[in-house]
Amino acid sequence: MVCERMEKEIVIFPLPAMGHLNPTVELGKLLLRHGVSITILIYESPSIDSKHIDSYISRVSTAHPNISFHRLPSVSLPSNSESATFLDHFHLTIPHLKDYLSASSARAIVLDVFFDDALEVASELHLPCYFFFASSASNLAAFLYLPTLHNKLNASFKDLGDTPIYFPGFPCSIPASDLPIRVADRSSKMYKAMIVQYERLAKSAGIIVNSFKSLEPIALQAIAEGDCIPGRTLAPVYWVGPITANVGRHKDSNNELRHESLSWLDGQPSGSVVFLSFGSMGSALPEAQIREIAVGLERSGQRFLWVVGGAPLQVANGSSVLTNMKEPDLDAVLPEGFLERTEGRGLVLKSWAPQVAVLGHAAVGGFVTHCGWNTALESIVAGVAMIAWPLFAEQRMNKVFLVEEAKLAVEMRGYKGIVDATEIEERVRWLMESEGGKELRARAAAAGENGRAALRKGGSSYNAIVEIVRSVRIADSVGLRTSDER
Ligand code: UDP
C-alpha cells in the first residue's frame, strides 16, 4: 500500500545564484503557507560561488526548517571543457534530476527559466512543470515575443545599432543596442537556446513571475491578449511579486546584526541620503568611472552612502548575498583627499551593504541603481525614487520600464559609456533638490504600498499563490501523476 503524504510536495529547482535562489526561497516560503511542502534542489558548478550559496542555505535551513534542501550529485565535465558554463553542468545533472524526481513524492516542479531542458523530464514523469521567471513582466513579454521577432527579422540585433525595436509589453521602442548580450547574435548558441527556451515556457503548466499586477499594466495586457505569442496559446501566468526579502518591513526596522551603514544612517536627517549601489557585479565599474562618481558626489553637496565594489556577500538578516568579488583599494581608486573632505556627509563601503535594510531606512531619499530586477523591486517596495544607471544583461530593458512606464526613476543619460562627474552631480542634485525630483520622490513613496497590498490576504499576488497550489492539487487529483509511477 502506498502511504499518501498529507502535504503535496513541490520541488523547486533554482539557478544557484543569489538573484535567482533568494527569490525562489522566498517563493517557497509563500507556498508553504498553503499546505504544501517544499524541497529546493541544488546542483554544483565550478562557475557558481558555492561557498556563499552554502552559507545562505545553512541560514535558511536554520530559520525555516520546513524548507528542505537536497543536493544533486556533483558532475564533472571532460577536462578539455575550459569554457564550460553553469548550463553545461546543469545538462549533465539532468539524469540525476530524473532519478531524484522518480523516487520522490513530488507533485509538481518549479524550474528556473534557464533549466527549460528539464521540461522533458517532467513530462516523462507526468509531473506538472512550472517556470519561475526572476525578472519583470515586461521582459517576459519581450522574450516570449522573441521567436516571432526572429522570423520577422533577418539581421542580428548586434548589427542594428540604435534601430528601434518594438516589443509587446513595453511603452516605447528599445534601441537594438540596449538588448541583452545573450540575444545580440542570432547565430550564437545562446540566442538559439533562448528561442527554444521561450517556446518551452509557453507550453509549461504555468509561468510564475516576480512582479505584481498593478505594477506592469502594459505587459500584463500584452500577455493576457496573446500579443507576445500570436496564434498560439500561452501557459497560465501567475504574478506573485514583489518577492523580496523582508517585504512588509517598515522604515527603521530593527536588524539583529546592525551593519555599520545602518548605524551611520541613523545619524542622518530623514530622506537626505543618496544611496548608490551597482548590484552583485558592481566592482565591474572601471576605475575611471569610480573617480567620476566621487567627483560628482563631492560637487553635488548631497549626503551619500556609496557601495563602490561588488562583494563577497553578506548578511545581516539572512536575505541578501552576492558573488565573490575582489574588494577595491579605495586609496588607489578614489581622488586624493576625497574621503577626508566628505567625512560626515558621505559613507563609502568597499563591497557590500544590507540593501533591503538600507532602502528601508528613513534617512534614504534616493537611489542610484544598476536596475537589476530584484533591486528595482526592493526600491519600489521601500518607496525610494531611483536614478537608473543600467550596466548589463536586461538592465537596460528594466530602465525603460522604470523610467518610461512606472515613472519611478530618471535616467542617467550617459549609461552607455563612462558617465561624467557633471552629469552625476546634476542628476543627484535634480533628484534631491528640484521640484521635479520632489514629485518623483513623492510618486515613489506612494508606489510601495501597492506591492505590499498585492501580497496581503486577498491581494492579487496572494491569490496567485493560492491558484498555483490549487492547480497542483487539481493536476494531482486527476491523476496526472499516479502513485504507481513513483
Ligand atoms: N545586494 C545587497 N547588497 C549590495 C548589493 C546587492 O544586498 O551591496 C542584493 C540586492 O539587495 C539584491 C541582489 O543583491 O537582492 C542583487 O540582485 P539584482 O537582481 O538586483 O541584481 P544583480 O544580481 O544582477 O546584480
UniProtKB/TrEMBL annotation:
> Keywords in UniProt for this one?
Transferase
GO molecular function per UniProt: UDP-glucosyltransferase activity
CDD domains, per the entry: GT1_Gtf-like
Superkingdom of origin: Eukaryota
Gene3D superfamilies, A to Z: Glycogen Phosphorylase B
Instruction: Give the matching Pfam families.
Output: UDPGT
Put simply, this protein is called Glycosyltransferase
Provenance organism: Dendrobium thyrsiflorum
